[in-house]
TrEMBL record, chains A, B:
Family to which this protein belongs: Belongs to the UDP-glucose/GDP-mannose dehydrogenase family.
Annotated GO biological process: polysaccharide biosynthetic process
Record-linked SMART domains: UDPG_MGDP_dh_C
Keywords: Membrane, NAD, Oxidoreductase, Transmembrane, Transmembrane helix
UniProt keyword annotation of Transmembrane helix present: yes
Pfam families found in the cross-reference section: UDPG_MGDP_dh, UDPG_MGDP_dh_C, UDPG_MGDP_dh_N
Single annotated GO MF: oxidoreductase activity, acting on the CH-CH group of donors, NAD or NADP as acceptor
Lineage: Bacteria, Pseudomonadati, Thermodesulfobacteriota, Desulfomonilia, Desulfomonilales
Protein name: Nucleotide sugar dehydrogenase
Regions crossing the membrane: 42-60
Keyword Transmembrane (UniProt): yes
InterPro entries: 6-PGluconate_DH-like_C_sf, NAD(P)-bd_dom_sf, UDP-Glc/GDP-Man, UDP-Glc/GDP-Man_DH_C, UDP-Glc/GDP-Man_DH_C_sf, UDP-Glc/GDP-Man_DH_dimer, UDP-Glc/GDP-Man_DH_N, UDP_ManNAc/GlcNAc_DH
Length: 542, 542
């Protein structure tokens, strides 16, 4: 039995013992007492993931009207072998995730070490001390296939467990704010019964104070700001919880510049979050058919989108990269399709565009290996045993977040087809989806199971040097719009590769001038949605 | 044989005779000579429809850098019984359509009567005088069913005929600018061969100068401005036509404040137009499933959309009214689905979201009679023989444009169900879709053929007085967000109806306060996407 939790940097932390738990709770009691005497509220944040850890710090960093800290925050994380390491790291003032926003490291250090307004803990007993509980426990959607999101299911056990324990431990007048993106209906039809039942067992007759509010966090250089300085939507199961959540969010976020939207029932704010992300996913999926249309008919979709974006009412039309990744867009619609049946009790297939959009986005990346195959064929080569260099592993430009990235799917298919893979991404050290599945991340997050032969993936290289990554490449795939890739001179790429190669542009990364240069250098070029490339080929191919 | 053309106001105009044609052409020759001597270019605009007539006036109203008129415009319209009346009307300085923008009447009067820079004619011989031809001939998409746009077809004969005659008559160096929304590929694969062949017959060996540019006209109070002061996209079949179209549009539109986007090939700008409108149609269709979800689960979609709109990246999310109307959104995607097969030669079903969006939008209105039926049932009444008052016939707020309006479909279904209909719309005098199909509009535009018993529709009343329209109504349907309807006091509506009635809100027209008042007055209320109404009913129903 493993009794250590290993951090991404490889540091081993022994899991807490029974004795540790008692000491830890006394520590928290002392802290809570002290801060309560200073007139502060005790906030417990459950779940130290991408959102929870930063939300905890934002709350701990907030001040009241007189400029004094108004909250003391306990960031709580279950001591599993997979996640326990976050607790001792935060306790040192170190952020439990890598982020492109330097403020993430700073705010956690500031709150833990300087202000001492934030502490991390592994014991649920912290809940007994809470005035407010913020729930940031993950609620995943697990797909059963790559092209039929509706057959998947919601993995809600961790969230249910957390809510049950919350009901067993919190003071009866504590506000429980669910911040996780959940299937619509969860706050009222899952959380409320769990907490109500636990209250009943404890002889508490008052109504649980449950609220829902969703964040709109965006990985990247404005990570912290996207939590604190951005519009929020909230709701509560009754008027008291609604008033409490408005008060709480007003105290910890910049609601002056970014006013709250208050909806009446939690199902309304839960639904708003899903509609918001499904809206984005649908816009992107809509463009997939136009991307293929463009490729087949001499149209450059990149320029068409630029032409359309000019209209203020159409300014959010965006080029769909090689599959739509990130944690939210690929799953949120699935939560609603599932909830409509399993929480809300309908049996008809109401949802059409929402799940179709996810299926289209999930499989869009599979067209990239097709383009690589065709480009190689034009050079008299085959994908099998060819060296393919992938530029970009993350799901978005200039971040290191690899969750559900298009590159993962491109690579898994290329490996099936027999290619040799080398990956370069300046933002990514670990590509968790290709590492040991038992530790990090959860199995549901890897899409290896949808492909033949997962073992070969362990042979894949993450190469920290671009020239080395390109050496002897038969194909280079521009997969992500990282700044570094936008201005890469074609001559340098060809030189690093040691000769002409196939060049695949997945994201409108190459302008016409560069495409022309690649052709003049003897390369083959193809691109998602870029049907005009054949015209350029006729004009410029050596 | 009919030899008159009747205007919407009922004035009869005899069609021109052979003798008239000769005189008319001499008139145009004299005008052209005179204006050419003044250093002006001769522009012939083909098609005096919604776009063509105003575009002709905008060109005629334009001035060169020294402030002098640079163009003389001949607006040409085929002398069919259905359309000939436009010519004599324009010649009097009267706009051939009703518009909410007073500038439409003014600009046509100014150019025809004051500046004398615009004349209208019925003879194609005008083309022999052209430096530039602007083609605004309609290209319709005819559906074969209400819920399967892909089985429809493009009605291109008029456009083809116009292009053929253009090739036969224009000077070889005239620029032909196609402005009609056409199936992608039309300029290069339909227009080019037609003109080229005509040129060949005439012994002209030079390449035809064909260009494509699309307008983004918006019915309403800024009609003229939406043609002149808005961004344009253009393209040409070769570099000379591209340069010519850039020069022409720069001379006649405000390209200083609204810069041109130049795309290389016409298929790129033709595609951009369709993507642009299909994008909008898809966003609206996406919301239909969420509208039904909202209704069934206590969610007010109006508030959810307001919550989401706050995000700048989501500001174009809009509540889908009762079906998505107007001339463009219901058909443009169909043009592309058709072109992909019939012009571009593909047999696969590439398009998924684009046609699905049109089908969803075309049938969304059919849910409104369901709501009316259910609301009546709650009052112990039946839809058959009930009087239903529809507030709003147009497709958009504060305009009188009824093309493909949701109200048409609502009414046709209600008539099938046996209801008695009364319509009130302060902007609509004629509801063409319900009038004689042989004259105006073209048969393809009416959706009567998708419904049982079209005859009954002639019994429908357009009532110019609101109170009279509401008298004895069993149901009132708020169908369009006309300003007048937004603040209608519930007490006044109930009083006009003579007692409590069923109230159906199709467009988020009633705020919660009004819904509450209707309930307090004993009414039944239901609304598209407004699931929270049941909560209000429990609280306030008398």
């Amino acid at each position: 039995m493993q009794t250590f939790s290993v951090s991404p940097e490889g540091e081993k932390f022994p899991l807490p013992t029974d004795e540790d738990y008692q000491k830890e709770f006394r520590r928290l009691q002392d802290l809570a007492d002290r801060h309560r005497q200073m007139g502060q509220e005790i906030v417990v944040v459950l779940g130290m993931g991408f959102v929870g850890a930063v939300m905890a710090a934002v709350i701990a960093d907030s001040t009241d009207d007189s400029g004094k800290p108004g909250k003391f925050v306990i960031g709580m994380q279950r001591p599993s072998t997979r996640s326990y390491w976050k607790i001792p790291l935060i306790q040192r003032g170190i952020a439990p995730m890598k982020a492109e926003d330097p403020e993430v490291e700073k705010i956690i250090h500031r709150c833990v070490v300087e202000k001492e307004s934030l502490t991390a803990s592994y014991t649920y007993q912290a809940l007994t001390l809470a005035d407010v509980v913020v729930v940031d426990v993950q609620c995943d959607y697990i797909k059963e296939s790559l092209n039929n999101v509706s057959t998947g299911y919601v993995q809600m056990e961790d969230l249910e467990k957390a809510l049950e324990i919350t009901g067993e431990l919190i003071p009866s007048n504590a506000l429980v704010l669910i911040e996780t993106t959940v299937p619509p209906g969860t706050t009222e039809q899952v959380a409320y019964p769990l907490v109500k039942k636990a209250f009943k067992k404890r002889g508490i007759t008052s109504e649980p104070l449950l609220a829902h509010s969703y964040e709109r966090v965006m990985p990247g250089k404005d990570y912290v700001s996207s939590i604190r300085n951005f519009w929020r939507v909230c709701s509560g199961v009754n008027s008291e919880s609604r008033e409490r959540v408005i008060k709480f969010l007003t105290e910890v976020l910049d609601t002056k510049n970014f006013p709250l939207t208050v909806l009446e029932r939690p199902i309304e704010s839960e639904t708003a979050k899903i509609v918001e992300n499904s809206f984005r996913a649908s816009i992107l999926a809509f463009l997939n058919e136009w991307s293929l249309f463009a490729e087949r008919n001499g149209v450059d979709l990149v320029k068409v989108i630029q032409a359309i974006k000019v209209r203020p009412t159409h300014s959010n039309i965006i080029f769909p990269g090689p599959g739509i990744g990130g944690y939210c867009l690929p799953k949120d619609g699935g939560l609603a399709v599932w909830a409509y049946k399993h929480l809300l009790g309908f049996e008809d297939d109401l949802f059409k565009i929402t799940p179709a959009a996810i299926n289209i986005n999930d499989t869009r990346a599979l067209h990239v290996p097709e383009l690589a195959r065709d480009a190689l064929r034009n050079m008299g080569k085959y994908i099998a045993a060819s060296k393919v260099t992938i530029l970009g592993a993350s799901y978005r430009e200039d971040v290191g977040d690899t969750r559900y990235s298009g590159s993962e799917v491109i690579i898994r298919r290329l490996v099936e087809m027999g290619a040799e893979i080398c990956v370069y991404d300046p933002y990514v050290d670990h590509w968790w989806e290709f590492e040991a599945q038992e530790t990090y991340p959860t199995p549901g997050k890897s899409r290896g199971r949808f492909f033949r032969s997962q073992k070969k993936l362990s042979e894949m290289r993450m190469e920290p040097d671009l020239d080395t990554a390109l050496a002897d490449a038969d194909v280079v795939i521009f997969a992500v719009r990282h700044k570094q890739f936008l201005n890469l001179p074609p001559a340098d790429v060809v030189k690093a590769a040691g000769g002409p190669l196939a060049v695949i542009d997945c994201f409108g990364i190459l302008d016409d001038e560069k495409i022309k240069e690649y052709f003049q250098l003897g390369c083959e070029v193809k691109g998602l949605g870029r049907g005009h490339i054949n015209r350029l080929k006729k004009q410029y191919k050596r």
